[in-house]
Amino acid sequence: MTVIAAQPYDYPLPVDSRRIALVIIDMQRDFLEPGGFGEALGNDVSRLLAIVPAVKQLQDAFRAHGLMVIQTQEGHCPDLADCPPSKRERGQSNLKIGDQGPMGRILVLGEPGNAIIPDLKPKPGETVIAKPGKGAFYQTELEEVLRSHAISHLIVTGVTTEVCVQTTLREANDRGYECLLVEDATESYFPEFKQATLDMVRAQGGIVGWTATTEQVLAGLKTFV
């Protein structure tokens, strides 16, 4: 059996390499770039930008091996019909979903700030899932896409660790997918939240999934494909 060295124990890879996919969650300009919505809320976006090289390494490796790469974008249609009022109104920020922000309307699909950062730009034909919620399965075609490609194993990256990444991991776990979260290819504005999420994912024998580093994932892929 081919494995990736991981916590809490080695992550078993499927016999057929075509059953594994890389999931890159919400690596959007508004969340990562200086001058975007994330920074406007007072966050240190440099923390999130720091993982781009690791995510890029994984993206390149999956592409080179002909394995599936999926990206997600959190965003809403321009009329905000898919945005619950509770989501739009929560918090006491002067900027809310749909308002004009530094890079266009905030969390609205098609706006400049909602785009995936240039370093990770999807290639033509790669799957991009627009999601109105935190989890990548809620009101999206993700499960249909995974089932149509017989995907059973997910290597998960992206931001933020404790919100959209963790929500997606838990959704995937409930649906029977074997999930590995890449420790240095995910990040939070709050380091303690990231660490807590890593601990929760791999607690109790991997109740939600596994965690490993980019180096460990790449080493495993070399023996796998």
Alpha carbon gap, first and last residue: 13 Å
Arrangement of strands in the largest sheet: 7-4-3-8-9-10
**Helix fraction by DSSP (H/I, runs of at least 4):** 25-40%
Number of helical segments?
9
Average pLDDT works out at 95
Biggest sheet features: 6 strands, parallel
Structural class: alpha/beta
- List how many beta strands DSSP finds: 10
Apparent shape: globular
Q: Give the uncertain stretches in residue-range form.
A: none
In sequence order, what are the helices and strands, one letter per element?
A: EEEHHHHEHEEEHEHEHEH
What share of residues are in beta strands?
15-25%
How large, in whole angstroms, is the Cα Rg?
17 Å
SSE layout and pairing:
Layout: E1 3-4, E2 11-12, E3 20-25, H1 29-32, H2 37-40, H3 46-49, H4 52-64, E4 68-74, H5 85-89, E5 100-101, E6 104-105, E7 127-131, H6 142-148, E8 153-159, H7 161-174, E9 178-187, H8 191-206, E10 210-212, H9 214-222
Parallel strand pairs: 3-4, 3-8, 4-7, 8-9, 9-10
Antiparallel strand pairs: 1-2, 5-6
Helix pairs in contact: 4-9, 7-8
Overview of the structural elements:
The structure is a single chain. With 225 residues, the protein is α/β, with parallel strands linked by helices. Helix content is 34%, strand content 20%. The chain contains 9 helices and 10 strands. The chain has helices at residues 29-32, 37-40, 46-49, 52-64, 85-89, 142-148, 161-174, 191-206, 214-222; strands at residues 3-4, 11-12, 20-25, 68-74, 100-101, 104-105, 127-131, 153-159, 178-187, 210-212. The strands form 3 sheets. A 6-stranded parallel beta sheet has the order 7-4-3-8-9-10, with helices on both faces. The longest helix has 16 residues, at 191-206. The chain is globular and about 55 Å long. The mean pLDDT is 95.
